[in-house]
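User: I'm putting together a teaching handout on how multi-component assemblies are represented. Below are the sequence lines for each component of a complex, exactly as they appear in our records. Could you produce the 3D structure of the whole assembly as structure tokens, so the students can see both representations side by side? Please keep the chain order the same as the input.
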Amino acid sequence: MNLLVFAKRVPATQEEELRILGDGAAVDLSRVPFKVNDWDAYAIEEAVKTVEKTGGAVTAVSIGDAESDEVLRRAIAMGAKDGSLIETEQVVHDPHSRAGLICNFLKKEALPYDAIFTGVQSEDDQFAAVGGILAAKLGLPYASMVIGIDAFEADHAVVRRELEGGLQERIKVALPAVLSIQSGINEPRYVSIMGVRKASKVERKVFKAAAYGDGLKGMIDVVKWVYPQKKGGAAMLQGDLDDICKDLLGILKEKGVYQ
Amino acid sequence: MSFALVVSEVRRGLFEERNLDALGLARLLGKETLLLMPEGPYGSCGKLADVIITAKVEETDFLNPLVMAQIVRKVIEAKGKPDVVLFTGSSSGVELSSYLAGSLDLPLITDVSGFDAEKGVFLKSYYADKIFGEFKPKEGTFVLTVRSGSFKEHARTAASAGAVEVLEGIAPAPGRSFIEYVEEEKSEIDIAKADFLLSVGRGIGSKDEIPAYLELADALRAVLSGSRPVIDKMWLPKPRQVGTSGKTVKPKVYFAMAISGAFQHIAGMKDSDCIIAVNKDPEAPIFQYAHFGVVCDANKLRDKMKDIAKKG
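Assistant: Of course. Below is the structure of the complete assembly, with chains in the same order as your input.
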């Protein structure tokens, strides 16, 4: 089995205060650290785990600037055989543009694959759409929110999709297919700094995105970036930690859940 | 003809409530509404749209993106191109919408939670709700998925049911087939029954912090639950997950520590009587939904609170 896994470098905005620049023209990410998209780490792990059973190899692919090589090194440290960077300085917001670029790349470079893995979504734009658009463009079956792979045979896979409220559905998908992997499907293996350093000795190919731009057109425009609407919000407790804790215990008593 | 096509989400004989958000947005756009459904016992939802299109296919095929692309093609053949195709914001909604947008080469905006009629822009979340983008699709038919809870107040029930039209001749898709539903394993602890939940998020830092939170939960006689990242990282077991893919809870007190408040989490706890949130980030979305908030390191507050609670 040859598996391709697409992974993206994203800003780690979880604990960052984000600022909008120039009346909504852009979001300031200049001081935000970057990392591998969470969902993609699960996708890489699942791809590696799969070929550990079936044999074959995983190739990691990333779209982004030269810094995205970090994603490939990490994927290789996790067990991917090699990596390819589709290099572009542009930030691609439209999932159509991203999927179209991948589609052109796969056709032109004729990379062999039995399945393509992606994360369900990326943490920054949260479109959750690249995998589905890509599958349709390639004329392949698609499944998203994949939370378990029960079988991976030569011509089909049996996977479980996560639905709502703890429910899952088990489906059969003919291969080759595109599978978008949900977080929590596995425990992405730990890689040490040494491991990532060692991975930098493995070849990563660089392709210029401009070579795969045929027929690509953005279909949506971002008019403006805005902050979320405030909804009134919480009464904020102030003071030293001791006082805050006493206040909180007071609230719990008042609500009748603590004596 | 100018109309909105709303693709309903139906599962195990139920017309999901989140369909009302897609229907509500269709109304807000001022469009005649066509509701697409499979054949089945879905009750009185016929009054929610101007026209009901019933596709003669099994419910599980209807929810198969390969089949849905074919169904929408047939709708277009019969009725012309809609102005907009709307899907629910759910596991199936994201799958169906993206595959359809790719199949028919249509612009797609997902997770739409707002619409500005004056500017003609759709609001879409970025960076876990810290920022929103105002998006505009290019010319022609476009596809949207609609965030649950965003537009349901705009859905309208008419006095009589819309006209029903039947769509036939839909072929199964050999590339993907439904096998069965899999229920979550039963657990001893039902967090949905607890009066007081102490809930932790990824901001606590590591699994090593969990025992101290269990101690605090004991001291407060609360039940410990967690947000998605905590379950994904296997710091807590799945039955303790609060959120759309876990459990929806309504305790007397929901005490959220180091949870930033992703929308899927908020949807699972926002109806709690009292929400207390502790987070390092003063801009964390959860403070918008909480009744009481504290900006500080949750682990420090935990230790202090544990000391005070134990002393009585």
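A couple of points students might notice: The first strand of chain B starts at residue 3 and ends at 7. The radius of gyration of chain B is 22 Å.
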